[in-house]
Write a sequence for this structure.
DNA sequence: ACAAAAGTGTTTGGGATACACCCATGC
DNA sequence: GCATGGGTGTATCCCAAACACTTTTGT
């Protein structure tokens, strides 16, 4: 079966950058390519658009097929249309990004050829995915200032320092603990989390974030270092990378109150911030 | 001649939202469709992607062909991929937006079926262009906080109140004159403009902005009102719409100092603004 | 002359920043 | 018991916001 057009048509594909946060480092989910071109290289999950689905639906479908992840929210990064970005034929890719709570995802890890990489240790990627990755990082850093994207990376509840570490990992800067907490609470979009069942909550908490698991999981690819990441993280203080133990203590837990956020959003719609 | 593929390919097109500012209102440039579908309706300039050009090159080319505008900078809005957004065939459109100094554009006005519309008076548009327009307004309002997009809408030099009216038109809010000036000057990206030749400067200034020209130009379409615009501008104070004369007085003129901006940008790269 | 816009400073309040000690927990 | 992280309050500073009168220009 073949499809004929009066004018040449490019192929249209989607690619998705999936960010995760393991309590210490920000990571992205990559798959290893099994076919040409770029066999053996790592790339973002994605695939070709079907004629009866939107780009976002396509990205969601490919994500489910390739990584087992069922994602609700995807944010569009934009279209990438360099003429020779795919050596096979002309392919325009619409890229998305999303943030997931790692605990929901660990199941997909043992899928062959799909793995999380800390953003500081991303290998060279297939196609123009290095470029897409840089754009995704920029976008994430922009968005986190205005949208509660960060909370999607954490579990249903989280401690203030988990949240702070997340912000520090994304933005690459350090905040004063007390000032950070004050500012976050002042927004009014966080509420204290009454642990519904302490054992259960702590159980899932540990299962997705203890250092032992993280270490064994990230295992052997600490030597993979690329230049583009040095550009991105050149100004990042080492502090966020040096403290090995950052989880497991008790503390007040919070949750993201969506109703309060929606009200907050309406109030702060238009303000001047050159 | 025809083109055959093993899998169905959507067509890929671009559309461009062109913002202009006439000293009082924010406008967009629309073209009237001469062919099916949506014959007679207004739409954004755009067209189909060629196989040897990027999406941005395509948008630039179509802009030149359809409106005579030679634009350097286009910002991508994103891809629009609703399955039935074009009744002819599956078309994915990559939308851009740009801001132009109206004085450079007035020449293109008399082209039949291309006209500027104040953003408050945009008619119903073809395809999903109403939606694209809303996205463009949102994006512009976001971007103006962080990027010096506004200056592209003004001439080489401008007065502080012209700049203020532009910000007020885009954001739909009112600023205190003195605070606005202080804040703008504090950024350090504006410099005083030494008029190179007073007569020449004032000449081109008047030629693109006097009220007489604006009035005759916008002439007869003040009755065109759409709901989606009411949504966007529901909270806009009437003040920006009621004062008829807002130009022509002398005053200190400024210009946008790109070198200073670049330095400013590097310094303020990462800051916390939830 | 009159109307509209340009030019100009100060005060005040709130939010951001900087900063240090004690306590609880886990090892 | 030791190390790590959790919990907590205050003083300062800077920026944003509010605010009015005089001068200049255009008609």
């Amino acid at each position: 079966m073949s499809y004929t057009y009066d004018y040449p048509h490019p192929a249209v594909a989607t690619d998705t950058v999936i960010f995760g946060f393991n309590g210490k480092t920000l990571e992205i989910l990559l798959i290893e390519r099994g076919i040409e071109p770029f066999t053996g290289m790592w790339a973002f999950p994605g695939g070709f658009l079907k004629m009866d689905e939107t780009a976002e639906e396509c990205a969601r479908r490919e994500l489910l097929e390739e990584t087992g992840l069922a994602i609700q929210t995807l944010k569009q990064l934009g279209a990438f249309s360099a003429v020779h970005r795919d050596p096979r034929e002309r392919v325009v890719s619409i890229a998305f990004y999303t943030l997931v709570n790692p605990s929901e995802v660990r199941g997909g890890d043992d899928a062959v050829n799909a793995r999380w990489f800390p953003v500081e240790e991303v290998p060279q990627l297939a196609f123009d995915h290095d470029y897409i990755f840089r754009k995704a990082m920029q976008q994430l850093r922009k968005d986190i200032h205005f949208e509660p994207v960060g909370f999607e990376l954490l579990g249903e509840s989280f401690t203030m320092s988990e949240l702070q570490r997340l912000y520090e990992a994304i933005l690459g800067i350090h905040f004063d603990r007390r000032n950070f907490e004050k500012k976050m609470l002042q927004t009014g979009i966080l509420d204290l989390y009454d642990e519904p069942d302490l054992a259960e909550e702590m159980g899932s908490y540990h299962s997705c974030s203890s250092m032992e698991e993280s270490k064994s999981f990230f295992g052997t690819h600490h030597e993979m270092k690329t230049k583009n990441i040095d550009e991105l993280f050149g100004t990042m203080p080492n502090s966020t990378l040096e403290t090995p133990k950052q989880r497991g203590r008790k503390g007040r837990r919070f949750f993201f109150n969506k109703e309060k956020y929606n009200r907050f959003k309406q109030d702060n719609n238009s303000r001047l911030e050159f």
